[in-house]
TrEMBL record, chains A, B, C:
Gene3D superfamilies: Naphthalene 1,2-dioxygenase Alpha Subunit, Chain A, domain 1, Rieske [2Fe-2S] iron-sulphur domain. This is Aromatic ring-hydroxylating dioxygenase subunit alpha. Pfam families: Rieske (PF00355), VanA_C (PF19112). The keyword Nucleotide-binding does not apply. It comes from Pseudonocardia yuanmonensis. The keyword Secreted does not apply. GO terms for molecular function: dioxygenase activity. PANTHER family: 3-KETOSTEROID-9-ALPHA-MONOOXYGENASE, OXYGENASE COMPONENT (PTHR21266:SF60), IRON-SULFUR DOMAIN CONTAINING PROTEIN (PTHR21266). Residues 12-113 form the Rieske domain. Keywords: 2Fe-2S, Dioxygenase, Iron, Iron-sulfur, Metal-binding, Oxidoreductase. InterPro entries: Cholesterol_7-desaturase, Rieske_2Fe-2S, Rieske_2Fe-2S_sf, VanA_C_cat.
């Protein structure tokens, strides 16, 4: 079972973070489908195919007016439902003049779209991430463009032992790679969980300022919702300590890391990330440090995965792998992609 | 009928503007054929295949001497007829050592070449552009390299309604897109004419300094000679005025815009342009403004068409269009390309 | 017989100059095979496949430690024999975890590798270059990356008449191209010799400062050992002089130029060069001038050959050549490549 070359179409993916979408035109390609997004006067998100019906000029290069999106080439105009409402030089608009629209749900500060068969688009299938709308939490966020297939990012995130080597300067420590993982799969939901719990580990640089500790109890609990949502629940606490029986954890720091893995094309990916915390909510300096550290870590991954993508293409079908214990999470995740891909609609 | 992927070979195309060709070697590819041009001692233009017979090094990288073109790699030497006259290290020159030459006609300040079957090269088939040699006219000119197929440039020029949207800052005004066109095709010559005449229109920025008018009568008369010559006859005058019955037009400004559309490869084009006027002949400041305005407009087209070329390639055979009234000119032009392409020689 | 598209695999090639290989990881691709080289604690050269068995991350991006090469992604560790000795998160290392190693010989200040069937790797087949280890000689050296197939570099070097045209400013003079060559092939060893001896020639710029002469006797004796080693024996002396019968040559300057032609991929080449002299051994200023002149000449070749590679690809199978007397050396060399390619192992 190799790196999945493609992700399934009949699924919800994050197309944008909510704060990326405003009253201007945003071009974004998802699963090879060029989209143009904007926030309507009503505050909802409109998602249209980013190709004028006339000569295929990208609508995202046009202008957003009160009458809708006006194409920047010849002025064909579209309302939020994708209907063409004006054609230059004639009063009649051809009945077939309409661009595709896509099911969209904005939830938990993210904009989800459905590229496949719209009849299969069930909003209830989108996983909730409660802490994103919990006032006891704050977060920082961004998106990194990745010139590598989504499967390589999924592999990367499901096996955090790479932190020890690729991210040594930020979040790596020897114990991450040394500590065995526990992998479980929920056959009903497809959710894959990978737990790695270190009771007495070196505190990596990124956590020292935060915790003031040299050695820590460190938990990394991955919760992967196929195909595109990855949640990492982190606990940092003094060594050999556990939360209380009632769940309270006065000595522990909890942080959440969310990745949304959205294929752009067969060989590029939108790598969305959100880092949340439930302490020091109003601390802009901590925000800045958090953004800097996470951006640096993500860039290390991007550099490595872009290189691997080049290698996969150059090596062609000769690609071979050897999997070991720490790959159980990644292999389980790949199986979920295969399972979801088995039954899907054809591209429209 | 989609954008023509290729233009016909058995036709004359502009390879260069006359002032580009001097006593130095000029490399230029036309219809995928690499050419080297120079002006001979007699003042005529020589056009040879730009590949040495020996190891295919481009002759344009060599030097032009009294003995002819000397290849910059091993010194094979060619006279203006393409005959190899000297080979290093031996006195005998192989009889087959000769590079192709191409029919060439210099006329109306442009250099025309014929890439296809030379037996079909009739100089009388090259359309004349009299104002280019009329002392009552002056002009500015240049060539913009376009990373898009020639058909996209033809589409662009045949439908000037795009001026309203793409060129709003220079030559666009609402009336261009709003005013219907009249399209006629001469079945004998294949010439396509598209007339758009606005009797009371907003004066676009590029014409205000020239005319001193806020509103104008504006005529745009396109005269397309397939496959590669596009003439735009422009009249700017006070609103609701017409030329006199004898053709005189004291209140009107006449300008001419010429485009020569020459395919370089299947996906790139030489976009030659000349802008002429019959007033203020000796006005270098007006020359400069004319060059600046036209260069800016052409660059807007180049940017848009380069983007469309990428989209055509990315979308592959899924490419679909919806044509409306304002496309009658462009569609008529495409039909001429198809007609001329139907019977043609095979590449030599 | 066209430019060889590929060079034979079951042959020794120079992978690096000795001084390029130290106690750090050096990535180098030879015949499409990605390699990682380093000098071991014992001083020998280790050559391993540059792909971790786990997820194919390049080992050259990892770190070299006392335990061996540690992969920079997940920490798989390899000893100098390519054996994987440590896997993170588990004590057992899979038995099949091993990367390929390659036969390697360091000789005469160059590192030779054998990419094909290792059973055919006979170190005695590597040609010796005695002057490289002779204390009476000194040298300067470097490697130029070439974005062209190795056959184009071989063509270039076997026909030095191009010096007159491509390198006029450095080592060209009219007599090089005018003087006929004598080509001989040793059918047993495959060595091709091309001699060009000018008894009274213009002294090119690069030799004037050296010799103080305006006209010279100039010998260029090529000795090509297929597939990858090219030796050029140069004698510069006063016109019409010969060495003495006992071989002594008090009025002559002897220099040696060595090229190692190593295919990187099917369309790129490592162009190693060494320039040696047996006079003024301790003259850093002469070293600097020699490096500057040879680098400039090599760059002229690189520019020309990169252009020819683009032409070969663009022209496709239409590629045609016309060969003349001065090509006898190049054609003989191509035949040796064909002969060596006829019987070879399949890629592993």
């Amino acid at each position: 079972m190799a790196v999945p070359p493609r992700f399934p179409r009949d699924q919800w993916y994050v197309a944008a973070l909510s704060d990326e979408v405003g009253p201007t035109l945003l071009a974004r390609t998802v699963l090879n489908e060029p989209l143009v997004l904007h926030r309507t006067a009503e505050g909802t998100v409109s998602v249209l195919a980013d190709r004028c019906v006339h000569r295929r000029y990208p609508l995202s290069k046009g202008t957003l007016t009160e009458r809708g999106i006006v194409c920047g080439y010849h002025g064909f105009t579209y309302d939020d439902s994708g209907l063409c409402t004006a054609v230059p030089g004639q009063s009649r608009v051809p009945r077939t003049a309409r661009v595709s629209t896509y099911p969209v749900v904005e939830q938990d500060t993210m904009v989800w779209v459905f590229i496949g068969d719209p009849d299969l688009a069930d909003p209830a299938a989108i996983p909730r991430v409660e802490w994103l709308s919990d006032p006891a939490w704050t977060s920082v966020r961004s998106m990194a463009p990745l010139a590598a297939r989504a499967g390589l990012l999924l592999d990367n995130l499901m096996d955090l032992s790479h932190e020890t080597f690729l991210h040594a300067a930020y979040i790596g420590s020897p114990e991450v790679a040394e500590t065995p993982i526990v992998t479980t799969v929920d056959d009903t939901t497809g959710v894959v969980r990978v737990e790695r719990r270190m009771s007495d580990a070196e505190c990596p640089p990124a956590y020292q300022a935060l915790s003031g500790l040299d050695r820590i109890s460190r938990w990394q609990d991955i919760e992967y919702h196929p195909p595109g949502l990855y949640l990492l629940h982190i606990r940092i606490a003094p060594p050999h300590t556990l939360p209380a029986a009632d769940g309270s954890d006065p000595g522990g720091f909890r942080t959440e890391v969310l990745y949304a893995i959205t294929p752009e094309t067969d060989r590029s990916t939108h790598d969305f990330w959100i880092v949340g915390r439930s302490f020091e909510l109003e601390n802009p300096e901590l925000d800045r440090r958090s953004i800097a550290a996470q951006s640096a870590v993500v860039q290390q991954d991007v550099d490595a995965l872009n290189l691997l993508e080049e290698i996969l293409v150059a090596d062609g079908s000769d690609y071979q792998e050897l999997s070991v214990n720490l790959d159980t999470g990644g292999l389980a995740a790949r199986r979920q992609i295969e399972r979801l891909s088995a039954r899907q609609s054809v591209p429209r």
